[in-house]
């Protein structure tokens, strides 16, 4: 479990990383997201070290030098009410973003040699995190995401995410 314990970024969550690296194949985690506005529960893959509608998930892929390829996924359930499986299927030509084994978005990566190289060389590290922002904390990320996630002010604490590794 990872918790958000108060209405400021300094009291909300942490980030953990795996000690191994992955490439081609299916990589997933089981997660019950933390509830309430301003709290974000994540599972992501990265090779550089490092939402708030309960039925929407922002998936994103960065290429080149921080070029974002993001989209909202709408799922038919409340992500804070039960554990679900979230995963990435990585192949030579596409990345599929899956929830409970269903591909909600598939991205063609044939024109993104940096992404393909990261997959081929198995240089992606898995991360999980819970974090949040209050009205007084500086913003982070793209504006559409910031507007959707809300702020911690008025949330009930602790807000707890359950990760099953």
Give a quick rundown of the structure.
This protein is mainly beta and 165 residues long. Helix content is 9%, strand content 45%.
Give a written overview of the molecule.
With 165 residues, this protein is mainly β. Helix content is 9%, strand content 45%. It contains two helices and 13 strands. The strands form four sheets. The chain has a six-stranded antiparallel beta sheet with strand order 1-13-3-9-10-11, with no helix packed on it. Strands 2-12-4 form a three-stranded antiparallel beta sheet, with no helix packed on it. It is globular.
What secondary-structure arrangement, pairings included, does this model have?
Elements: E1 2-4, E2 14-22, E3 25-32, E4 39-46, E5 56-59, E6 62-63, E7 67-68, E8 71-74, E9 84-90, E10 94-99, E11 102-108, H1 113-120, E12 124-132, H2 143-149, E13 159-164
Antiparallel strand pairs: 1-13, 2-12, 3-9, 3-13, 4-12, 5-8, 6-7, 9-10, 10-11
Quote the average pLDDT: 86
Q: Cα distance, first to last residue?
A: 11 Å
Can you list the strand order of the major beta sheet? 1-13-3-9-10-11
What's the number of extended β-strand segments? 13
- Poorly predicted sequence stretches spanning 5 or more consecutive residues: 51-56
Estimated helix fraction: under 10%
- How much of the sequence lies in strands comes to over 45%
Structural class: mainly beta
Oligomer: single chain
Largest sheet: 6 strands, antiparallel
Gross geometry: globular
**In angstroms, what is the radius of gyration?**
16 Å
Can you write the helix and strand succession as a string?
Answer: EEEEEEEEEEEHEHE
Give the number of helices.
2
């Amino acid at each position: 479990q990872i918790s958000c314990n108060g209405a400021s970024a300094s009291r909300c969550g942490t980030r953990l990383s795996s000690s191994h690296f992955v490439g081609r194949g299916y990589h997933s985690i089981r997660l019950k997201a933390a509830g309430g506005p301003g709290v974000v529960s994540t599972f992501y893959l990265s090779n550089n070290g490092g939402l708030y509608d309960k039925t929407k998930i922002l998936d994103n892929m960065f290429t080149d030098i921080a070029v974002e390829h993001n989209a909202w996924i709408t799922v038919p359930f409340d992500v804070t009410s039960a554990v679900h499986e979230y995963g990435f299927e990585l192949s030579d030509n596409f990345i599929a973003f899956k929830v409970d084994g269903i591909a909600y978005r598939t991205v063609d990566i044939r024109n993104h040699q940096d992404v393909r190289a990261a997959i081929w060389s198995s240089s992606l590290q898995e991360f999980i995190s819970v974090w949040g922002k209050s009205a007084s904390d500086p913003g982070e990320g793209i504006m559409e995401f910031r507007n959707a996630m809300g702020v911690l002010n008025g949330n009930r604490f602790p807000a707890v995410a359950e990760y099953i590794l």
